[in-house]
Hints:
The complex is a heterodimer of chains A (300) and B (167).
Chain A: H1 2-8, H2 14-33, H3 37-42, H4 44-59, H5 64-70, H6 72-110, E1 121-130, E2 135-139, E3 152-154, E4 159-166, E5 171-175, E6 182-187, E7 193-199, E8 203-207, E9 220-223, E10 235-242, E11 245-250, E12 259-263, H7 293-297
Antiparallel strand pairs in A: 1-2, 1-12, 2-5, 3-4, 3-12, 4-5, 6-7, 6-9, 7-8, 9-10, 10-11
Chain B: H1 3-24, H2 40-48, H3 55-72, H4 78-96, H5 103-129, H6 137-158
Amino acid sequence: MAQYSRQRAGGPRILGRATIIALGLGVVLLLALQSSPEVRRGLQSSRARMDDVSGRFMSLAPASTAMIVMGDRENREALKQLRLEKRSLERWRDSARAMSARMAEYERVLDIMDEPLADEVSARVIAEKDGPFAKTMLANVGAPRGVNEGDSVINANGLVGRIIRTGKTSSRILLLTDYNSRIPVMGRVSLDRALLVGDRKTGARLEFAETPDLIVEGEEWVTSGDDGLLPRGMTVGWAHQDDEGWRLDLAMQLAPVDFVRVIPPPGFSKPEDDPVEPDEEDTTPGEAVVETPSNASGTQ
Amino acid sequence: MRATNRIFIGSILVLFVSTLGPALRTVNWPYPLTGLWPVAGLWAAIAWSGGYMSVRAALALVFLGLYQDFLHEAPLGAWPLAFLSAYAAGMSAHKLLPARNDYMTAVVFALIIGFVGAFIGLVVARGVSDSPAVLSRDLISDMVLTGMLYFLARPLLSGDGTLEEAT
Lengths: 300, 167
């Protein structure tokens, strides 16, 4: 005790104090600079490199850590459960294949233009961080595997988030629960459209609902695909009303996120990207190209 | 042990704990450990505040904070500001105590004041960088765990709690 008190004696040096204050002011200045979106964008590449470095360290913590921590007994039970689920899923798979073939035939008959199938990439989540500033995850696939910013990320339960940055060996996923997350969604029953906004307390809230009176308690909500970035129809969660309005019990929170699939945006091409070349012999500039019985027969 | 060595070893420990946390979050920990992880940098900030003011310690805290910023996807400078605030608050807490005070009282007092300093630092960082609200239940839970484990980490970071040599 006395030794501790003696160690407290002795004053700090002026130069040292000034240096530390200067360090603090420098840090505040660095923070202030980042209020500019341009500066934030400029830092993206260094953050991506850092994600790769930290991703390598984090991937060293193997999944077997869970086995060490939680013991074999629980894992054996989980394995037994998984085998049962696998048998059940195989029956569903066969059923789904049959339905898929029938659906494809119907679509061919009705001449329906379906959403293009995307090339998916499977990945493992190697780190999760929900600090005070952001809720993100790190996945062990990077740009060379075809992952791009804006790709959606799903797991077995539903939508998890979006890719916000890609490195060579890792990608960072912005979770639906993050404050900055904005996802257009729609209700399966009410067909109401809304914006899903990340919320620190409840996970995610439904904002700007077009017809909130039509929303049904417990209704499943899926991605609407209105932004052209997310495929339509991916399960997001189930509606629940509380004091502050409608929120979603997120599907991604049903179980820990481990393996995920990264899905690129639907490949719809814009009309400007693939314009129809006007036939110079039949049309003049500004004339509408409308196929009517009269001009089709050439009697105009 | 020399102060520089102590800062170096403490920094390695903090880096290790900070890196391990996000990796283990993906593992299905049993309740109540789910999602909890200590903010290891605060251990260093408060433990090092028990000695003389050290520029090397402050520089190490800035480095550790920047690493934490990258890990946590925070605006660069947010965690360095929190750690420096905790360091300064911890030093002030040690000065505020009477010359002959109980050792444990001094440590606990510095810990609490250091945490308050860190919270203020995070709130200032949030305001300056125009980020979302930072005070959350998760952060408070992490802070509580940090405080509980501080008494285990403190001997590793600063021996008997002091940095004998000034810069």
